[in-house]
Design brief:
Helix 2 links the parallel strand 3 and strand 4. The chain has a domain at 4-101: Alpha-Beta Complex (Protein-Tyrosine Phosphatase, Chain A). It contains 6 helices and 5 strands, in the order E-E-H-E-H-E-H-E-H-H-H. The protein has 152 residues and is of the alpha/beta class. The protein has helices at residues 18-27, 47-56, 73-84, 98-107, 114-123, 132-136; strands at 4-7, 10-13, 31-34, 60-63, 90-93. Strands 1-2-5-3-4 form a 5-stranded mixed sheet, with helices on both faces.
Length: 152
């Protein structure tokens, strides 16, 4: 699997399987975030199955399911909270990786410059230009709400 790093501590990926999780463990990821609702596709591995694989390899698992094309402010707030809960490397996945990249960008609106958000996602093959207005107007949750607890 080719994990696409948006930062040294955050990567995105299409749907993962057990082999991908074993590889993620070898790379030192401490959290895997699933951004797919269960049963999005008939052949998709359910979040509970991926969580069990992650546990076998000592990786924490978080489920932040978001319907493709429908990222709401509550989704952004939850994603930001989950990101803030870990100082170690995070791997987020969805069907193609795009939704996870969008959530990362929206979760970091106001924390990183717009150009950084757009350029980092573009550099790994994800076009988030449709989010420019939302990233600029601060549609993401206020960063002061969440304090990062100790690393995982």
């Amino acid at each position: 699997m080719n994990f696409r790093h948006l930062t040294p501590l955050f990567a995105v990926s299409p749907q993962v399987n057990e082999a991908d999780i074993e590889y993620a463990a070898r790379l030192g990821f401490c959290v895997i975030i699933c951004n797919r609702p269960d049963q999005e596709e008939p052949a998709q591995s359910p979040a509970q199955e991926i969580a069990a694989y992650a546990a076998c390899y000592g990786i924490a698992f978080r489920h932040v399911p978001v319907v493709s094309g429908s990222i709401g402010d509550a989704d952004i707030a939850l994603m930001r909270k989950v990101i803030d809960e870990c100082d170690g490397p995070i791997l987020a996945y969805c069907r193609t990786g795009t939704r996870s990249a969008m959530l990362w960008a929206l979760s970091n609106a106001g924390r990183l410059p717009l150009s950084t958000l757009v350029n980092r996602t573009a550099a790994v093959g994800y076009d988030i230009s449709t989010l420019t207005a939302r990233l600029t107007t601060g549609a993401a949750t206020d960063s002061a709400k969440f304090k990062a607890p100790p690393s995982c």
